[in-house]
Amino acid sequence: MRIDVVSIFPEYLAALDLSLIGKARRDGLLDVNVHDLRDHAHDRHRTVDDTPYGGGAGMVMKAGPWSEVLTGIRESAEPRSGGKRPVLIVPSPAGAVFNQRMAYDLAEEDHLVFACGRYEGIDERVVEWSREHFDVRPVSLGDYVLNGGEVAVLAMVEAVGRLIPGVVGNPESLVEESHSDGLLEYPVYTKPSEWNERPIPEVLLSGNHAKIARWRRDEQFRRTAERRPDLIFALEPESLDKGDRAV
Ligand code: 6GU
User: Fold this and answer.
1) What is the pLDDT of residue 119?
2) Are residues 188 and 93 in the same domain?
3) Looking at residue 64, what is its pLDDT?
4) 91 alpha carbon to ligand 1 midpoint, in Å?
5) Segment 72-85, tens digit of pLDDT
6) CATH code for the domain in which residue 198 is found
7) Domain of 162?
8) What pLDDT is recorded for position 247?
9) ipTM score of complex
10) Alpha-carbon distance 175 to 162, whole Å?
11) Side-chain half-sphere CA neighbours of 60 within 13 A
12) How far, in Å, CA of 36 to CA of 150, rounded?
């Protein structure tokens, strides 16, 4: 998968050299390119923002540098088989909220481009113009405000990157994690079996795999109902098994 990130703080994205995502890059599974938007501002002060039409607080990112950098990225991308357009993700608190479903969908794409806005956002005409060549998706991490899209991009690239085959060493570990089945994950324990006068749940020592599976599933429901009741309401009836019941 190819990933391009455009930012006025490219140093923020240095973390993409680390850990699992860094290894995936070195292994050739991810081709990540970070672009400095200011390289596409051609005045003496490398200006990327200006005051908003209609007045109001803050500054708005100018269209010119954005159109230049996005055109360069598009032209440098190989023509895609089937004419599939790259996905342009615009991180914004005004976007659709990112979730595991979206991460799975994005992991199927060949080319993701992230446009990190700062200030009050990017001139809306850039977003409209981009639809000609990109599949444009404004995406938010959640209902709170960050100063810019960079931290959101780190989160999204990690969530998507780890779903690409070969990035996570043991693909089994993707199956039983939070949100993979619409529920939060069950609690886990390791040795010693008693610590600080606290034993682990007895069932986990029973050797009865069906019973353990049932206990874990019940714990998933208990946790989800307590911490994220919204997820219980969103469950597809078909995703429930015969043993599921109100916990
Ligand atoms: Cl994706 N960007 C910004 N600037 N703020 C956010 C966000 C994104 N998600 C939540 N708050």
Assistant:
1) 75
2) no
3) 98
4) 6
5) 999 999 776 667 89
6) 1.10.1270.20
7) 2-171
8) 52
9) 0.95
10) 12
11) 15
12) 12
* 142 annotated as belonging to a binding site for a ligand: yes
**7, 12, 92, 144, best to mutate for ligand 1 pocket (most atoms within 8 Å of CB):** 92
pLDDT score, position 177:
85
SS3 211: helix
Distances (CA, A) of 206 to 201, 202, 203, 219: 10, 7, 5, 17
Between the CA of 193 and the centroid of ligand 1 the distance, in Å, is 42
Domain co-membership, 148 together with 192: no
Per the annotation, does 29 bind a ligand? no
> What is the position in ligand 1's atom list of the atom closest to the CA of 117?
4
- 151 token code pair: 């931290």
Q: Does residue 127 fall inside a structural domain?
A: yes
Q: Does residue 57 sit in the same domain as residue 28?
A: yes
Q: Give the other-Cβ count within 10 Å of 114's Cβ.
A: 25
Q: Is 126 annotated as a binding residue?
A: no
**145 in a known ligand binding site:** yes
Structure tokens at 78: 């190989």
Q: How far is the CA of 85 from the centre of ligand 1 (A)?
A: 24
What separation in Å is there between the alpha carbon of 99 and the centre of ligand 1? 14
Q: Which residues of the chain have a pLDDT value below 70?
A: 80-82, 245-247
Question: Residues 94, 72: one domain?
Answer: yes
- Taking CB atoms and a 6 Å cutoff, what residues make up the pocket around ligand 1? 91-93, 139-142, 144-146, 148-149, 152
93 and 164, same domain (yes or no): yes
For position 83, what pLDDT does the model report?
Answer: 74
Please choose from 140, 151, 160 the residue to mutate so as to test ligand 1's pocket, defined by most ligand atoms within 8 A of CB.
140
Number of domains in the chain: 2
**23 falls within a domain:** yes
Identify whether residues 46 and 154 lie together within a single domain.
yes
Tokens of residue 238, six digits: 């078909």
